[in-house]
Design a protein that fits this description.
244 residues, seven-stranded parallel β-sheet, 7 helices
Length: 244
């Protein structure tokens, strides 16, 4: 199977290319449903999208934005909440109407119901036109950790232990208070009409190698993207160091 791999020369080119994947989708489809991801990989590309929109405004009144996942049992006031990051980095600067910014709550008495509502809201809008995906250090996509079945649908997953420890430090959350992440399941992600998997930095090089050159396995959830008919793997040169 031939994979669609794009390798940017450096981090700056990577950020511009990733940003234009989002902008071009908005321009070509004014009603596009676009899934985003949060983290250090996406911060600069979101800033570029917002900067270009500020300089050259275009109609986003019918664009739907959402994030592939959201933290659970934390306030949205936490700077690491996905709602807050996406709102500050891109949804707010573009003026996306609140009704078109679809996110599950961070606090709920019934996260199973919230997961169903989140998934249904995206299905009611016709499904996902573009899903931007980050790559976890252990190969997770969304918050679907290694071992997650490929047929999984929207659910609340455990966090990566290292990430969870950081969140607990930043929020002073005690160990007895459960944390997790409401995330689109791997099945939902694979139903996206187009996916762009983004990874940059030398620290991602080994997991990129396993994702692209290794077998399709639940041990590396991102490896399933090898089977998607319209997935682009967008890497910077450092992340692609083991890819010929």
């Amino acid at each position: 199977m031939r994979l669609n791999i794009t390798i940017a020369k450096n981090e700056e080119e990577f950020d511009r290319m990733a940003a234009w994947r989002i902008i071009s989708t908005m321009l070509n489809n004014p009603r596009a449903v676009i899934g985003l991801s949060t983290g250090q990989t996406t911060k600069n590309m979101h800033a570029i999208v917002s900067q270009i929109f500020r300089l050259h405004p275009f109609d986003v009144s019918k664009i739907t934005l959402f994030n592939v996942d959201e933290l659970t049992n934390l306030s949205r006031e936490y700077k690491g909440a996905c709602y807050t990051m996406i709102k500050d980095q891109i949804a707010g600067p573009l003026g996306i109407p609140e009704e078109n910014f679809i996110m599950p709550p961070t606090l709920s008495d019934d996260f199973d119901a919230e997961a169903r509502k989140f998934q249904q809201a995206l299905e009611d809008r016709g499904g996902i036109d573009l899903q931007m995906l980050g790559l976890g250090a252990n190969g997770h996509i969304g918050i679907n950790q290694p071992g997650t079945p490929f047929e999984s649908e929207t659910w609340v997953s455990p966090m990566d232990p290292i990430f969870e420890a950081r969140v607990r430090r930043e929020t002073n959350t005690p160990p007895e208070h459960p944390l997790g992440g409401l995330t689109l399941g791997i099945k939902n992600i694979m139903h996206s009409r187009r996916i762009v998997l983004i990874a940059k930095g030398e620290h991602k090089a080994e997991i990129v190698r396993q994702m692209l050159l290794g077998p399709v396995t639940t041990d590396i959830p991102a490896s399933v993207l090898q089977l998607h008919p319209n997935c682009e793997f967008l890497l910077d040169a450092d992340a692609a160091r083991y890819i010929k």
